[in-house]
Records
---
Amino acid sequence: LEFSPLGSGLGSYLNVHRLYRVDDERRVYYFAENQYFQTLMETGIIGLLLLLSAILILAMCLRFLVNHGNSPKTASVCVLGVFLVPSQLVAAFFDFGWFIPANTILLATTSGFIAGQTHALADRLKNRSFFRFGLPRWAAFGLMLLIFSIALLSLISSWNYAAMERSLGETPQTENYDTMSLEKVDTRIEGLKQAL
């Protein structure tokens, strides 16, 4: 709650969880082993609500496909979705799989496929529903531009992070600021200043 409502920032769990540890720090945890908790911690209540909203929309798409679809293509998408969604929702309580880029891309692609099939089926049925909508070309272009901009900013941020890591040099897992010599700490601080 200290970082509400936007959270501590993506990828910050590694550093933030240490602020609340009371025991002697011996292990470093990169992930929370719970997708929902880590999302809440890093992106705040707003990020968690966005994640849960996306899950709800995907579940609504699946329900629509199951109730109205009757073609073999729709049936195959239903089978895929019926196994994918519940398994990932349960696994997220015990793992952080969605933070792994390959899993994120696979889940996003599959979710997009399910949503696309839902939209196409709603169009074919001429069904007046939430799933049958049209987007003006300018809105689609604006959305694509926004997504591209966010991806570009993420790439720049990753590049800066990698430069900072290179400037710090290699640090053995057993070494921390409590066990380092004062001159090594000063060297690392100077490397950080140059990287930033």
---
Amino acid sequence: SSNIDNIDYMVDLSNNEKENLSIQGYAKEGIKEQDKHVVGYAHEAGKAIIIVVNKWDLVVKNEKTMSDFTKKIRNEFKFLEYAPIVFVSALEKKRIDTIFEAIDVAYEGFTSHLQTATLNEIINDACLMNEAPDFNGGRLRVYYAHQVGIKPPTFVLFVNNPEFAHFSYLRYLENRIREAFEFRGSPIKFVLRKRK
């Protein structure tokens, strides 16, 4: 069967606010709504995330199986495009090293810092290429951006009016940042401030 499934439970290291990594595991019997809620919580809490597909030894594979599983997971968790996906067999101890490689990648993304000049170049280019839509009675203008934190990378956008920011435009800006610097395994957080 090529269905995705929840192992028995998800190993979620983000229960403690001091922990910053959520490792989500799936194998072959279908993702449940509860799984989506737990992963959504880790994402909303700003945790680095990797997705582990376990019991890979039980899956009948061809040259497209891994790609098909990846597409299914991406479809179920559209908000986790940034999370690395690794395929392992814990029982047979196969590909376990890929978990640690993914943790390293996620930690690097989680602790990355952009220079202000580089960040503003990315944001300015994005705004020139695609102007913000009218929303809540006005159009968002981003004057300046600055990274103020890591774990997760947090960016302050100084704008004309935060009320004019539509979530889809913020996602667009996030995607432009990720095109330049992946921040793999890490969510990106925006804080909007009205320029005084």
---
Amino acid sequence: HSENPMQYLQRGLADPHRAAVFDCASDDRWTYEQLFDRTKSVAARLIRAAGWRQGNRVGLFLQRRMESAALLLGIFGAGGIAVPLSVRGTAREIAHQITEAGITHLILPNESALRQVLNDAVPQATEHRLKLELLETSAILDDMSPVPPLDLVPEAPALILYTSGTTGPPKGVVHTNASLMTQVEVLYQSWEWRAE
């Protein structure tokens, strides 16, 4: 597959005022234009973060919120590798993921319970001489700096998902830009999604 997630999102800008993501709990929605703007904000902030290089691994908690779509796509747009952390994970499990994945940048959640888990996990992870750049979710979503054009290679890693760890410590499974786009296309065709 030759497209990357940012190109796929840009296709939605053909109808910028069409709803792109929904928050079922509050009935809020973002249009493709709003999602693209917030995605660019995340990418811009990451690119300006200390020590940023394409291929850096970014840890984040993916929650059932519209912001999660912008955070994930923004990481892809900055050429980073997203590493979702379990919202139910213990400090020890999160420290393992941070260390094993080589996370260099961590997007801090707004929720105090998740922050407490991170407060306990980060010292455990940094014992392994890992330096973390911490970024606030609210500041990332509102950064309006321009995003330089990046060459996002289809074969480049984009996402590391962790297994359940039933036979030992969880292991990271790497997905490329191309494999993510193939998965989206398969779902699109299988579920017969249509623009409405």
---
Amino acid sequence: QKSYELIGEGSSPAEEFNFTIVATKTSHTSVTVAEAPVPTITSSVTYAAGDATVGGTATNSVKDIVINFAPNGNLIYNKVGVYEYKLEETIPADASKNLGVEYDKEPVTLKVYVVNEVDGNNEPTGKLKISEISLTKKNKKITGLVEGGTNNNAAFVNKYTANKLNVAKKVYGDAADRDMEFNFKVSFTNESGKAW
């Protein structure tokens, strides 16, 4: 799943996030990386303006990213083994980025364990099945889900940061002119590496 989290105040812009998946490694099989079948993945998810929420766990902040290992009803694998993939969010060019949106640059590693299916007598049926799927991010195992009121296990987390600035001037004293104009200069410093 993907989470869109609001940091601060304000309303997030409408946004589309895109994803790719590529095979990176195979083991315990004669299938090479170049030959490895690649599952289909939700290529993009869209959010309407204001969908990012504090914590990023509200229904409108969470989108499903579906990985399909049998797009035509048949498992894509024809040999046992461990198949490893890299899932990434596509980071748009600077000119296409929305100000205040933080894109998720950390890839997710997907491992798929394919084994022989056996019957009740522990005899091979001639079919294959997926025995386990694991997801890791930053060398930490994740579920890929937004769960338990937190987005810590989500596959991808995007953040939108916006705040308000209120400027006020108080005038004191018995000779103060409340109608007099005052000029203000406000300067902002951009955090390094962030698009604004």
